[in-house]
Amino acid sequence: MPAVNLASLSPSSQESIISTLQSHHSSSKPYTRLASRGLVFVHPNKSLDLFNDSTSKEYALQTKIDKDSSTITAGRHEDAHVFDLAASAYYHLVRHEEDQSILLR
Questions:
Q1: Range(s) of the domain holding residue 12
Q2: In a domain? residue 12
Q3: Does 1 reside within a domain?
Q4: 18, 28, 32, 102: most buried by Cβ count inside 10 Å?
Q5: Considering the entire predicted model, what is its pTM?
Q6: Cα–Cα distance between 22 and 42 in angstroms, integer?
Q7: Direct distance between the N- and C-terminal alpha carbons of the chain, in angstroms, rounded to an integer
Q8: String of b and e for 35-48 (b: at least 16 CB within 10 Å)?
Q9: What sign for the dihedral angle of Cα 20, 7, 103, 79?
C-alpha cells in the first residue's frame, strides 16, 4: 500500500513519489498529503463524488476543534482532501489568531 503522506516516504525518491501518486490516481484518490499542511492534487479526468455539497457538509460536521487541547479532528476521514486542508487552516486561524493562506497552482 502506498504512503498516504509523501513526507513519510523512506527513502524518498522520484520513483517512490511517482509510484504513490500513480497509485492514488488509479484508486480515484486525487489528493495526497505533503507533510501536515500541504496537499498534492492530480486531476482524475473524471467526475468524482469528492467535490459535491454533501461531501463538504460531511467534513464540516465531522471536523471538531478542541481549543483547549490544540487539536483538530476530521472525523473518519483519513484520506487527504482539500476540505480537510481548509478545516486545518480554519483551526490555525481560530487557535493562533493568525491569518492563513491556501495557495493553488
A1: 6-96
A2: yes
A3: no
A4: 32
A5: 0.67
A6: 9
A7: 28
A8: eeeebebeebeeee
A9: positive
